[in-house]
Amino acid sequence: MLPMFFWAFVIGGLICVIGQLMFDVAKRTPAHTLSTLVVAGAILDGLGLYEPFADFAGAGATIPITSFGNALVHGAMQEAETHGLIGVLTGMFEVTSSGISAAIVFGFIGALIFKPKG
Amino acid sequence: MLKGKQSWIFENHPVIQSTGVSGGPFEGNGNLAKDFDILHEDLWMGKTSYEQAHRVLLEEAAQTALKKSGRSADDAQFFIAGDLINQITPTSFAARDLKIPYFGLFGACSTSMEGLAISSFIVNYRGAKNILTGASSHNAAVEKQFRYPTEYGGQKPPTAQWTVTGAGVALLTENDGTHENCPYTTSATIGRVMDMGLIDPFNMGGAMAPAAADTIEAHFNDLGVDQSHYDLIVTGDLGKIGRDSMLALLEEKGISIDQNKCNDCGLLLYKNDQPVQSGGSGAGCSATVLYGHLLNEMKKGVYKRILVVATGALLSPLTVQQGESIPCIAHAVSIEI
Amino acid sequence: MAKKKKTPQQKQYEQLEKKYETKRPVVKNCIKAFFVGGFICMLGQFISFLYIYFFHFTEQTSGNPTSATIIFLSMLLTGFGIYDRLGQFAGAGSAVPVSGFGNSIISAAIEHRTEGFVLGVGGNIFKLAGSVILFGVFSAFVVALIKTIILMARGVM
Question: What is the distance between the alpha carbons of residues C154 and B33, in angstroms, rounded to a whole number?
Fold first, then answer.
């Protein structure tokens, strides 16, 4: 169990360092950087590389935003296997719903109970 | 009177009879806190939105300036002011409540001196007896409009600046010889828009330096003076990077300015341990520092003659997204006592 | 959105300004990003184990409730005004994990409440996260489409 924590820390940290280099060296905005990382996650899953990566790194691969791209491709592929090409559209959000739903729900709750602090 | 290419001389010496300066919590913890008339403990100021709080800052500064001279809003012929918010609504709403005939200005962070220059011209030529002029900004309202929601975890680079939450308003009045120990305006140089192709909205200082250098050069040429004419040359919000760049640019043009004679409102306002990166900025920056601290120093006899060069970056969030560079402007006004 | 050609004067100023421009502390920022990002992922791993051992999720299915929990925590940190300070310190270390995604949505929602819930909150909630969702979905669509067509052509599907 302990190795899992170590690799989660290291791999997660390294993905964040890639993001930081995009901020500081490539001078990209957060929106550009995160969009690039999501697309990278999608492409890696398309190539079949993200799953073994996640088995090894655990949360180090599933917590960074790259896993969002991975989960979207996964959902799409799952449906496509049973329903053909149309499955690419219908299955997209099956696997990843919790991230977006949670963000929207907690966003609204946040707006109800919090005031910005400036 | 027009002097040279783009400057005015105010022979009748319009007097800055009184001023009002308001600020927020950050300014209250800063270097010049005792030069503020009103300081607020939080950014809301008892209102329900940042934009309304912004209006409160300006209204309070205007009322304070009037009260200190024993005048009411009815005594002022014109209200000439602006801010950074879309359609300068905080200033317009404050004008609505003040009920003074109103000129709304937009010069970004150079608005304070744009207003003082125009007001001085009008008073000098007896177009008004009293004019209320100023500028203001509110950190959270500006962040919300120009950058990110205030609770967003974005990382500001060291070239960024901190928008001042504050308003500075002056009551400019006809000089009838009765105003003892009151500063007066003597000249102004109107800047032209300069664009050196910089595109980083997190580095305003670097973008604005050429405009400041251009206006200072024009001022010296038009009036036939050099830096020895002034006890202090102070820029609005160039910050650390802008100030260094401007001094270097002026050196290249053969204009040497003594480092000790040249300062920046954005660098004066905050303490070194406050997280303001390269210094303060915003329309309220030059207004609060000039109409509070600098005029107080003049009344104490520290400076007899100063040149205030307020600098503004004329961009919008849309122009940045469309890949445009940042055009800038600087207006200068000289004040003596 | 073509890059405008710079005049010689502009190029000259650019060189001059670069000398005075404070450089970003890249190495320091990367170290901070590494530690904060790594810590958040480690926290996610811990939460994941809690869901597996106490709530009967499997390794495969624990990802979803873990993301939701991390986003709930980021709501608290955003609402209490802590996440923006964390972001200034950690940069990508707090923006890249899914907590950063939550923060981008929640901070926009909180900020625009003054414009009402429908137009303010509803109209602005995806201001920052919209790009991530758009590009995530579209790239997944393209990747899955290509992969499906290839597999169909090979007669596997």
Answer: 75
